[in-house]
Amino acid sequence: MAATATYVLRNPNLGLTKPSPSAFFGVRVPLSLERPRWVSSAPRPALAAAVSCRMTSEATAVEAAENRTPGVGLRPDPFGRFGRFGGKYVPETLMYALSELEAAFWAVSKDEDFQKELDGILKDYVGRESPLYFAERLTDHYRRPNGEGPHIYLKREDLNHTGAHKINNAVAQALLAKKLGKKRIIAETGAGQHGVATATVCARFGLECIVYMGAQDMERQALNVFRMRLLGAEVRAVHSGTATLKDATSEAIRDWVTNVETTHYILGSVAGPHPYPMMVREFHAVIGKETRKQALEKWGGKPDVLVACVGGGSNAMGLFHEFVDDTDVRLVGVEAAGFGLDSGKHAATLTKGEVGVLHGAMSYLLQDDDGQIIEPHSISAGLDYPGVGPEHSYLKDLGRAEYNSVTDQEALEAFKRVSRLEGIIPALETSHALAHLEVLCPTLPDATKVVVCCSGRGDKDVQTAIKHLQL
Amino acid sequence: MASFDLAVAPYSCCFHVSSPKPRSHSVLMSHPPKPSLGMRAQGLGISETFTDLRSQGRVAFIPYITAGDPDLSTTAKALKLLDCCGADIIELGLPYNDPVLDGPVIQASNKRALASKTNMEAVISMLKEVVPQISCPIVMFSYYNLILARRSEWFLSALEDAGVKGLIVPDLPFEESADLRREAAKKNVDVVLLATPTTTKRKMKAISDASEGFIYLVSSAGVTGERDTVNRQVQFLLKEIKEKTAKPVAVGFGISKPEHVKQVSNTIDLHLSSLVSEINTSKILLQLSLWGADGVIVGSAIVKLLGEANSTEEGLKHVESFVASLTAALPHGDHGLGEEHVSSFILPQRRKLWQGLPSASSSSLHLHH
Asked: What interface predicted TM-score (ipTM) does this complex get?
């Protein structure tokens, strides 16, 4: 990043190695997480002296106390804010549960037994670590006539148990729920992958599971509905609103408001009220950590560009988080442009949205002038969400990450292309990230290392593809 | 753009009933007539309203309706009706397409209101005409994103201009509310905060101190509209709050059971289901009054009556009848609340139910005592 970058390097002392107590209100809120031990930490490159290019107005007492570089944003701060984004905009009924959840999260992050148990499950049950795969034919495809071109690697989250990255978060939250003594689990789901992951972990841990899914999504992801029911979950159709992910999330929130004392809500993405954006990111951060290690092993360096699809933003944050402080690593998010950005039928929140409050967080969202939430559209159920995680909103505003979008048509083409070139059928959500390579790769210098998060496999999408693809 | 029917003479009261409706219901209890518009100054604030009621030994009746359901002209009529026929304060909801704290009845009502293109401007326009004609203070109920989209400064100014006295924002917890409360104070709009059974003791104190107008005590964990009986916890929560503050406390959520209020064309069935609902709700209102609530908030039942009726007139008629019986259940006048009140009101209702239904030939809904 050039010297005029608006993003500020964090103080290296606040890396992921030791917790630092907050001076606020005598409440000890550690700002960082002990590095979970299933990823061996590669030696971190020495960070250059922090350069402050932009002062935010949120210089908190904590920052002063830490004597950190002024203007560095906490991700998040003790109130759950990423700059002006995030926070907890929920009915009062849920506030105590959120505090309880946050306290439990900090407790387990230091609990060796918890980490060990989680470590074991991720390895033996989920199948981690997922490979970082060199996509030879895809790399060839993007090689320019003069022989130059980027090297494309795929981080194979599609190889996880249940076929997507969602399981990382579901497993950790289920363990957390057990720690909290909650026996009833609720979740929302768009594509069904998070629902399946939740149903899976509830079966594994013997918890009652109820999944809310928009009626329209249930139709287009019928395979996943069946899987959830087979796994023992109750799938409740949500007919209100547009009957998609946004409405399923609202219904799950209503259930939680009603049953908050007995129920844990496994939110599937880095959206929602604090502590969810932070917690879900931390549970997915293993993706980025493994990638750093694998990159070092494979080519002795770091990735140059990270690409991931963004619906709520969980797989993207999982990959990006490890590298946010490495300003020489480019972060590229890809949203769904549906029928096109000007068609009014898309889900490109970070491109076309305005800042507002949805499902508990202040973030960019698709809304009209009155503040009514706009019905989004994407061929992929998992990206069909009018909001986005607050941390992505923050990274966008800082200029640290770039966000593009890809239409349904382009995603379908990538779906077909990658199947044919690599023998990997990607999820339609992932296809959006893969489609963006068409635009990105011609601009990249020779031998640029590009890592695309292959967030899920596409078996669940064949019915949709059949309708749209002529094969 | 909805046009508001102002043909009804503004100060006439209860304009549907064909036969006079007796308001006093027992020999022992006679309540003073509801203060006429002349007695109460226009633009009475929320705190003053409660103080007024307290001095009369009365519990505030606070109905909730969604603005624009099924259209704004119905809302305008309903506001006037509620004002003259029993309400002390009226809660008016601004329709939103993602109402996370609302159950199916109010969700449906939001949807209907949005279908008739109800937005903040239209509502404010309507209120500017209607508020000068009514005496109850109005409190707006709006989700936070609707306020943010317009910028809170504009929103609060609009409320002030329209004469709206208070604002409730269900998805803005106390921790995030400081800025809004500060701005609202400049515009003389009371920001009413919610307290719930899951609120910690320490926070209950903070909420009680910061809430203006009154404290909205949510009766149980959950969304609007759903319960059979009132959560026993409410008794202790009321006590807890009243130990910390002298501010009035109104209890809401689940006060009425809308399932009992069915919309059918058959008058007989309507009598029966209405009676059942009135008895249940009346019991709950009495219980809350006994526990010390300064106000009760009734939402879903009224919303359902208004929104699902075959016509505006029919809906308003049913609301009038329902509200009349509910307010009759609340304490009036100097008489303390006690068993005589309970039995003198409830028993005749039950007797009527057991004996059978009023004659089918009666064309208007009224209750004999």
From this structure: 0.82
